[in-house]
Amino acid sequence: MPATARSFIGGAVLVVAMALPAIAPQARTPPSDDPVVRALEPLLAAEFAIQSGRLDDAARWYLEAARAADDIELAERATRVALLARDDARAAQALELWRAQGGAGERLLAAEATLALRSGETDAARRHLTALLASPANGWREALAVLAGGAGDPDQAAALLEDLVDSGHMPAELQAWLAFGGLAQRLEQPALAERLVAEVVRRFPGEPRVALLRASQLREADRDDEARVVLETLAAQASGDADLRLAIAYEYDALGDLAAAAEILGRGPQDDQSYALRASLLARAEDKTALVALYDELRRGAARPDPQRRLLLGQMAEFLDRHEEALDWYAGVPGGPQRWPAKLRAANVLHELGRGAEAVERLHELQADASAPDAARRDAYLLEASLHEEDGAAEAEMDAYARGLAEFPDELEILYARALSWERRDDIARAEADLRRILVIEPESIAALNALGYTLADRTDRYAEALELINRARAAEPDNAAIIDSYGWVLYRLGRTQDALAELRRAFALQKDAEIGAHLGEVLWVLGQREEARRYFEQAREIDPDNRALRRALEKTGA
After folding, report:
1. This model's pTM is above 0.85
2. Distance (Å, rounded) from C-alpha 209 to C-alpha 201?
3. Which residues of the chain have pLDDT under 50?
4. How many alpha carbons lie under 13 Å from residue 500 in its C-beta half-sphere?
5. Half-sphere exposure of 180 toward its Cβ, with a 13 Å CA cutoff?
6. pLDDT in tens, 438-471
7. With contact defined as beta carbons under 8 Å apart, do 264 and 252 qualify?
8. How far apart are CA 558 and CA 276, in angstroms?
9. Residues 138 and 107 sit within 8 Å (Cβ to Cβ)
């Protein structure tokens, strides 16, 4: 919050506190000539509205406070909240006030561009975006954010981006071209993405990051063989660059070529992080031959009591289903902070061996160990609950959570885990109770606000209440994909289907997630756009075929 607003709020709280004893009716005090005093009441009302998730009311009160105080920071705040509330009329008024008070610079231009996009004023939006791209203060980042979040649909954003490229307004900066090329991919505009990448290759020949973008673009266009050719050419440059090796491995991983990803990570100097990543990739590839070779290589150098190496060897032994060896490695972790995750992993291995009672006994010992850090003892309760869940022992699972909360009253992670467990069992009342308890302890917990808002939107008909909770989370993190997804979902539940579609498209552009894809597919299906809906359902299935939201959407639509 701007410094001016903070000072107003502090004064307002003091005024309200002093006024509490004198609530009886009395003669109305004439309006003050002091702009700070005049702004106190609407500013307090705005803050309370934000805390209640009533963004429409917050926009109205912030605008009134900005007018009363004649304060540029409040005018900017009023503009941003109105845009977040999608109250374009008030956003326009706040913008006018912001400009009149001397507002200028990239943030003002970005707000003007966003409002112009929403209003369908393409020429004005183009003008503001052009000014942002010409700004020497990295204005292209603001332009990127506007196109990623302000446009109503991908086609609108892509058309504007293409105009900006055609008119030669893109800055001569590699990072900007890479970012806009990535945006074109996220907007699912393959032709535009290919054109941008080709231009970047022309402008910045031999730059590894450009080749990576090219490989990514080819992969997303299902041209996997061509993507591999690019990566093979790039790999020759990677031996002395750990970051480049990691980026190439990521692309191979995305192509499903886990062996190639592990091989590229194996080039050059190695450390425990690279060994761990290679082991994870080989385990996922179920390449036990390569994993055994890596395991043998590592354990030859494990004679000295290195806690990190022994912890890693224990995890690799788990991957190889050598559970007794894993237990030996974990028992041999000599000390240090690795001692506690080793104890937790050992309990998990015992459970895998069918020695569930022994696993729980070990966890009880850790829970009672006064020398253990609180985080390790807390995690012992969480792991115990998880193991009981795997066994279908619902009563024992809830008992673990209850004992954990008795030992660590109001521990947020235990409350959150229990809330999710209640939700999985369709006990929405208990899930809500735990999430609300978190919000009593930490009123601004973004995770709890979003989880509770989404749960109410998805599993009840209390949509107005859900919207207020989600709006509180949006006010804190307006560009969080999970929160945007929740917002789009509650708009859909409220019958605002077109608004929901725009938000869900934006969420999916920010994060390719199975649940977001399922929501987007369902909304498209309801709107009659069934081929596109099937495409998103298929993408969601590729990401996580067992996602619950996806299963429900497919069952509901029959897709």
Report:
1. no
2. 10
3. 1-29
4. 24
5. 33
6. 999 999 899 999 999 999 999 999 999 999 999 9
7. yes
8. 42
9. no
